[in-house]
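Problem 12. The chain below contains 140 residues. Write out its predicted structure in C-alpha cell notation.
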Amino acid sequence: YDGHCDLHVGITNSEGVVYHYDQEGVHRAGSGWEQCISIPLVQPDMWELLQHWDNLLEEFSLEEAWLPHRYEEQQHNCYTFALAFVNRVRQGRGREPLSKAQFTESFLLPHTREASRYLTLHQELAHRDFYIVPLAEQEQ
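Solution.
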C-alpha cells in the first residue's frame, strides 16, 4: 500500500469470511484480503458476543440499507457498513455509538500508523543491501 488510494473496509465472521459493501451490495469473501490490516474489535473475554457474532453479521448484511442501489461513494460505503455494524453491536451491549471520527481515532489510526511504519521500514531495507536473519533460540 502506497498511501495514495482509499482503503476498503470489511468485517470478518468467526471463520475469517470478510463481509464488505460496495456498489454491488454486500459481498462475502473467503480470500482476497491476504494483505489487509486486521483490527480486533472484540476482546477475548467477550465470549457471549463471540457466540452470536456470525448471526449478527449475517442478519445485518441482509438489511435493506446495504442493497446495491443505496451505495453512495462518499456517504454510504464500506466504511459506513463497518461502522454501522460496530455501532449495532455496541447498542446491543448498552454502549453509546461511535462517530466516524471516534471510530477512526480509536480503532483505525493506531493500526494504520503501525502498518505504515512497518511498510516504510520494509521498503527502506528492501532498497538497500540489508537482510534480516532470525536470532538463534538462545540469543532471543
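Discussion. The longest strand covers residues 18-22. Students who got a different answer should revisit the alignment rule from Section 12.3.
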